[in-house]
């Protein structure tokens, strides 16, 4: 183990990641399907597409619209469902040279319980991200992910049935993010992932039709980066568990900014679509940033905003 490896290594709820650069749910497939595009051994980890109890075909197309400051998507949680995931996809993930975090999304406590029970049986998966925040499905996580009492109750039940690390992915579309994060933490979450996309819409002014088949969608990319920085900063002051920052990392500097704001690790989402080399460039940049600024390891810069 060389010093460089030590410098970037981070620990979240006892799980060790080689570095804090993760790929966000829904933007990296299941990991194995991007292995010929980038060297996934250089990543800290990959969060899978959200898995639901039943297969989902997703929303009407078009499902993607690019704006000058980011992208709108209304994918609608397309996935094969938990049983096909376990049978056909999990075997393809077992030997991937990076940490795999499985994202799950349910419409009710019982659905989340089913999903977490099934994912808990996968021995090489150490963390489960609970998608409590998808804006692109009519029912689902976001509806009870906005209420501190239901978040607490859900986490408490899930804590009782699994020893895996539980990351609660929250929506930015709430009045008090810290209150929700504290509820998740009190219920037994090990980390909070922040943020999912923001509700958004685009219209073709000539046809006057919405650009997305689902009419509205979720905005990701540079436009939401400062929102993510503020939410990570605010919540890291009040929540006693690690924060995983997400939102609009299109440059390595954006990534470091989220760490300084208070994130212990950061997920790159649509920035990876724009530049498939971004995750690797970010690992290299972070390494140089630490050396050039006299830090021994990445933990030394977490939550160090100079107010
Ligand atoms: C095409 C697309 C699909 C997504 N699918 C999911 C998903 O299945 N589950 C989830 O929790 N987040 C999903 N997200 C949200 C991302 O994980 C991330 O929270 C969001 O895009 C903000 O990060 P970014 O600005 O770096 O993209 C998706 C985002 C995009 C752009």
Structural notes for this entry:
The structure is a single chain. This protein has 307 residues and is an alpha/beta fold. The chain has one domain (3-58, 75-197, 220-301): Aldolase class I (TIM Barrel), CATH 3.20.20.70. 34% of the residues lie in helices and 19% in strands. The strands form three sheets. The chain has an eight-stranded parallel barrel with strand order 3-4-7-8-9-10-13-14, surrounded by six helices. The protein has a four-stranded antiparallel sheet with strand order 5-6-12-11, with no helix packed on it. A two-stranded antiparallel ribbon has the order 1-2. The mean pLDDT is 94. It binds flavin mononucleotide (FMN). Flavin mononucleotide (FMN) is lined by residues 24-27, 49-50, 71, 73, 75, 77, 103, 131, 134, 169, 196-197, 220-221, 224, 246-249, 268-271.
Helix content, binned percent: 25-40%
Q: What structural class results from the helix and strand content?
A: alpha/beta
In quaternary terms, these chains amount to single chain
Count of extended strands: 14
Strand content: 15-25%
Strand order of the biggest β-sheet: 3-4-7-8-9-10-13-14
Output mean pLDDT.
94
* Number of self-contained structural domains: 1
